[in-house]
Amino acid sequence: MISRLNMRLVYGAGDIGLMGAVAVAAQSGGAETFGVIPEHLLQKEVGKLDLDTLVITGDMHERKKIMIMNSDAFILLPGGLGSLEEFFELITWHQLGLHSKPCYIFNVDGYWDTLIALIKNQINEGFVPAENINFFTVVDNIKDLETKLTQDLS
CATH number, domain at 24? Predict the structure, then answer.
């Protein structure tokens, strides 16, 4: 999808797991790849060294800032705690007016249903402003994701 839409992949520069597979697919399709990894994770996450651009940072905060500054949109894929931490920072930055770039929750097979329910509960309980639900778009399949990305970035 990334190469088909002539987009660049900006990500955490890992060579393993789901994002490693995304990077390999992007490269196979001829897409530009831009990875950002803190020095202490180079070995642990097996840093992907054959990217078009590889930035090695001193810490996680610098990593996220560089990724946000170099991205046009953000997609939350199924993942773990690190994915959640990055997503919530993006939403918080949007709330604070630090960016207005589109954010998507790619809810493959309902993986993020409980996250979406949690955010709606936070809104219903008055802990999160209701308009924050508009800071992200939930998409359930690759076709809808492609359509939204194309619309939002044109």
Answer: 3.40.50.450
Asked if residue 142 and residue 130 are part of one domain, the reply reads yes
Q: Which residues span the domain enclosing 31?
A: 1-71
Q: How far is CA 146 from CA 3, 30, 124, in A?
A: 12, 17, 31
Q: Are residues 96 and 39 in the same domain?
A: no
**pLDDT (tens place) for every residue of the chain, 154 residues total:** 899 999 999 999 999 889 999 999 999 999 999 999 999 988 776 889 999 999 999 999 999 999 999 999 999 999 999 999 999 999 999 999 999 999 999 999 999 999 999 999 999 999 999 999 999 999 999 999 999 999 999 8
- Whole-structure pTM value: 0.92
First-last CA distance in the chain? 16
Are 46 and 90 in the same domain? no
